Amino acid sequence: MKKFFLLTSMTALSCFGSNIADLSWMTGKWGSESPNGKVVAEEHWISPSGGMMLAVSRTVVDGRVAEFEFLRIETRADGLYYVAQPGGKPPVSFKLTKSTKDSAVFENPQHDHPKIIEYRLDGPDVLVAAIEGDESGKHKRSVFRFVRLKDAAGTSPLRHGPAAATSRDRAER
Question: What is the CATH number of domain 2-172?
Fold first, then answer.
């Protein structure tokens, strides 16, 4: 009986998120800011519809765009895929391998860096993203902590733009 329960629990955990709607917790405008305010990052995810979620990401350093990325999560016959196009380059796909009600792990073992992309909610207003893989012969993992941006207009009265909410939110906690 214990083996059946364990197998059933593991199957439920690995199958959660097989429907694009299960990832709707990622929906929203998310931002972060470096402590000195010189680096501001944003990800904007729209809700799932038609078997797909779409997003854009932008990193601004010293007031200039340093990086941007087009992102999507799409439903395919064999599962869900996170598709990244950094700088508008050709797409790279990562298959959903694990998910829970508030986390998702996408993997592409053939890609150099990253090989793994993770997202998880850390409370209702914090999204943690992590990437890991091999870079210049070394294993590297980078973690990005975003807060939910509450300004519906997409502008911010904050010091360094929308992502400045990170500093303010940390100060209020």
Answer: 2.40.128.20
pLDDT of residue 164: 40
pLDDT (0 to 100) of residue 167: 36
**CA-based R_g, the chain, Å:** 17
Q: State how beta strands 92-100 and 52-61 pair.
A: unpaired
3-state secondary structure of 31: strand
Distance of alpha carbon 87 from alpha carbon 70, whole angstroms: 8
- Nearest Cα to Cα of residue 173 among 140, 105, 113, 125: 125
Which of 76, 67, 120 has its CA nearest to residue 94? 76
Question: Environment class of residue 37 by beta-carbon count within 10 Å: exposed (0-12), middle (13-18) or buried (19+)?
Answer: middle
Domain ranges, ordered by start, for the chain:
2-172
pLDDT tens-place string over residues 4-55:
434 333 433 344 547 999 999 999 999 999 999 999 999 999 999 999 999 9
In DSSP terms, which residues pair with 56 in a beta bridge? 44, 70
- Report the percentage of the chain scoring pLDDT > 70: 77
Cα–Cα distance measured from residue 105 to residue 4, given in angstroms and rounded to the nearest whole number: 25
User: Which tokens belong to 165?
Assistant: 């909410």
- For residue 86, what are its two tokens? 């950094």
**H or E element: which one contains 138?**
strand 138-148
